[in-house]
Amino acid sequence: MQPGFFQMGGFGKVLARPENRVTVDPARVDAYGIPIPVVHFRFSENDESLWRDMKAQAQEILEAAKCRMIINDDPAPSGFASHETGTVRMGKDPRTSVLNAYNQAHDVSNLFVVDGSCFTTFPEKNPTLTIMALAVRAARHMANEYV
Question: What's the Rg (C-alpha) of the chain?
Answer without folding.
Answer: 21
